[in-house]
Design goal:
Order of helices and strands: EHEEHE
CATH topology: Alpha-Beta Plaits
CATH class: Alpha Beta
Structural class: alpha+beta
Oligomer: single chain
Largest sheet: 4 strands, antiparallel
Number of helices: 2
Number of domains: 1
Low-confidence stretches: none
Shape: elongated
Number of strands: 4
């Protein structure tokens, strides 16, 4: 599964719960609906990732990135 953040377009932020329902129907596992900022987070399979951008109310689909830092006791070069 791929972790994603969905930005909801301004004209659909009042109906963000409906956008989340459409994303679920498109195969996304919705984890958080951040209505004050218009973002929905969750995960989706690689095969269903492309479908999320076609959901009504979605402005953008962004893959989450992970940053790995060395432990504090490691020497940093």
């Amino acid at each position: 599964m791929i972790s994603v953040s969905i930005v909801v377009d301004d004209s659909h932020t009042a109906g963000i719960v409906d956008v989340a329902a459409r994303l679920r129907a498109a195969g996304m596992s919705v984890e958080n609906v951040l209505d004050t900022v218009g973002i929905i987070t969750g995960s989706v399979s690689e095969q269903q990732l492309g479908a999320l951008g076609r959901v009504e109310g979605v402005e953008s689909v962004d893959r989450d990135r992970q940053v790995h830092l060395p432990p504090p006791e490691d020497d940093v070069q």
